[in-house]
Amino acid sequence: MTRKIAFLPGDGVGPEVSAAARRVLDAVAETHSLSLKYNEYLFGGAAIDTAGDPLPSETKTGCLEADAVFLGAVGGPKWDGGALRPEKGLLDLRKALGVYANLRPTSIAAGMEHLSPLKIERAKDVDFLIVRELTGGMYFGDRTEGNDTARDECLYTREEVSRVARIAFEAARKRKGKVASVDKANVLATSRLWRNAVNDLHQAEFQDVEFSHVLVDAMAMKLIQAPADFDVILTENLFGDILSDEASVLSGSIGLAPSASLGDGARGLFEPIHGSAPDIAGHGKANPVGAILSAAMMLRYSLDAGEAADAIENAVAGALEQGRGTSDIGGEDTTASFTEAIMALIE
Ligand SMILES: NC(=O)C1=CN([C@@H]2O[C@H](COP(=O)(O)OP(=O)(O)OC[C@H]3O[C@@H](n4cnc5c(N)ncnc54)[C@H](O)[C@@H]3O)[C@@H](O)[C@H]2O)C=CC1
Ligand SMILES: CC(C)CC(=O)C(=O)O
Ligand SMILES: [Mg+2]
């Protein structure tokens, strides 16, 4: 069976880390006898420049017809302030694919403990999964934008909250059995709906899962103060975006952090959590691990190739343990030499 991957390198370091992920995917395809077919499409700023649209219809159709979608990153100063924004293409793609649950795991790999700003004594106990709602909330509400007044609407329906909460509770059952739901229910109406909907689902179907509510400001503190206390952290789109960048610091670098965005079918969208990193783009400095681990998540969640995913994750862990890495994690490798070190450990 040939698996079809829609491949969107995007902007900035996007093409650099995507190329790294593709080399590793090709290496694991060889060792695990997988047939992978990549169809590459224009997306983001690169698509604005060429086609006048961050999500051209050919790209959208190609993604909808694929078994999985892999993305590098989009955006950059070139398009800031323009009428068309690369980031709008990303939001539209997530909506079109119906990928409402964004899974962002955080742990501290062996060999990376010294990078933690926290002197975490028990680094191996830090292992949590942020489940971020991805197709609703503030990023998708109506906006008005003027010189003196601007407005961003935040809207959630009970159904949108319940379906992502279900993913979080189900994930907790396969992990350490705990969910912390994060909101701002002391202020926001959407957060009070969020809290009621998650409570109701917990009560009706998931009473075996240990469950708590944490206000988002307190969570920003607790994530740093006691990260080993958490298992699954469920939250809305905006809060999850912010908390996951914060969480990446625990692991050593945002360049290490992968994500999987899933909906009701098998097809998902897989991308590192970082952006296009214009400050380092084109210098061979980008850490490819977030993209490479996103490719592993793609194999596991959308392409029915869990053993190949394990092989990639083991190879990444091995390379980090050997002290290999780009400068963001204190290493001397380029993106390419780090990728080769990982490929050499694929079994
Ligand atoms: N999913 C996406 O495509 C996302 C796109 N963006 C866009 O990316 C552009 C830049 O945004 P920033 O706020 O600078 O966030 P960013 O995530 O691109 O960069 C933040 C910092 O992390 C570093 N960094 C990021 N990825 C790295 C990697 N692989 N290896 C080593 N260091 C890395 C950068 O050098 C920078 O210092 C903006 O246009 C933004 O809208 C931002 C976040 C996500
Ligand atoms: C550019 C945003 C739409 C995306 C983002 O920051 C993210 O999903 O982490
Ligand atoms: Mg983000």
Automatic annotation (TrEMBL):
Keyword Protein biosynthesis: no
Gene that this polypeptide is encoded by: leuB
Top-level division of the source organism's lineage: Bacteria
Chief localisation class: cytoplasm
PROSITE patterns: IDH_IMDH
Pfam families: Iso_dh
Site feature (Important for catalysis) residues: 139, 184
Keyword annotations from UniProtKB, A to Z: Amino-acid biosynthesis, Branched-chain amino acid biosynthesis, Cytoplasm, Leucine biosynthesis, Magnesium, Manganese, Metal-binding, NAD, Oxidoreductase
Family the UniProt entry places it in: Belongs to the isocitrate and isopropylmalate dehydrogenases family. LeuB type 1 subfamily.
Species annotation: Hyphococcus flavus
UniProt-recorded name of the protein: 3-isopropylmalate dehydrogenase
InterPro entries: IsoCit/isopropylmalate_DH_CS, IsoPropMal-DH-like_dom, Isopropylmalate_DH
Cellular localization per UniProt: Cytoplasm
GO CC, alphabetical: cytosol
GO annotation terms (biological process): L-leucine biosynthetic process
